[in-house]
Design goal:
heterodimer; A: alpha+beta; 4-stranded mixed beta sheet; 10 strands; globular; B: Ubiquitin-like (UB roll); about 25% helix
Chain lengths: ~160, ~80
């Protein structure tokens, strides 16, 4: 499931929703990304998250479908916010659910690596030193290449 | 052919517009050719697409390379490398 929204999310509420009505779940892995007050040697007082309505949902659905085809997931949730955020605010939630922990951990990392290099969001940081668009980290694109290597059958 | 063009982040800031409907000349067939043509529209677009090798494109909500064909596109977007997550 994909949610692209301005409002904050509550990780406890989302986990409870995923668990509701089922008792076959063995592992839930959660990642939460938050706004830092300091980046690239500058203080950050505010972050603007711009996005491409329509493509963000489509791209995240594509990424989620890829994860579900690679690992035995019982459920998957990505919540990504947009709009104006402050330091310590939540930005993104990735939840993966599986019978066993290995698939849940691997899928969560995969989802994050892919959304950081494919999902059309752009961050603009504001602080005492002015405003600037965050530059993409080349390590994020390299991280997705890691997922292209041949996999062992055990995975 | 009238196509919707979209610009995001610093590309939008530099062009001064977020979206427009454009009649793309028929001789322009790829994303790269479109960017060259857009550069020629004036100083803002020339500045926005000055480092066109850095700019990413999407056609109808799918990431595409600069050699992608634009012929059947309903919507083409230009933006910097993404920084979500």
């Amino acid at each position: 499931m994909i949610k692209v929204q301005q409002e904050d999310f509550d990780i406890g509420v989302e986990i409870a929703r995923l668990k509701a009505g089922r008792s076959d779940i063995g592992a839930i892995v959660a990642f939460v990304g938050t706004v830092r007050d300091h980046a690239g040697g500058r203080d950050v007082e505010e972050m603007l998250l711009e996005h491409y309505p329509g493509m963000t949902e489509t791209e995240l659905q594509r990424i989620e479908a890829e994860a579900c085809s690679r690992w035995p997931l019982q459920a998957c949730l990505i919540v990504h916010r947009y709009g104006t955020l402050a330091p310590s605010d939540n930005i993104v939630l990735v939840l993966t659910v599986s019978e066993h922990r290995k698939a849940a951990f691997r899928a969560a990392e995969f989802l994050l690596d892919y959304l950081k290099s494919h999902a059309p969001f752009w961050k603009r940081e504001s602080g005492p030193e002015g405003r600037r668009w965050v530059e993409a980290d080349t390590r994020d694109e390299a991280a997705t290449a890691h997922w292209d290597k041949p996999k062992h059958a055990a995975e | 052919m009238s196509t919707r063009l979209l610009y995001f982040a610093w590309v939008k800031e530099k062009t001064g517009i977020g979206a427009e409907e454009v009649d793309i000349p028929a001789h322009i067939t790829t994303v790269a050719e479109l960017m060259s043509w857009l550069k020629g529209r004036g100083p803002e677009f020339d500045n926005a697409f000055a480092r066109s090798e850095v700019i990413r494109a999407a056609i109808d909500h799918k990431h595409v390379r600069h050699d992608a064909a634009i012929r059947a596109a309903r919507e083409i977007a230009f933006f910097p490398p993404v920084t979500g997550g």
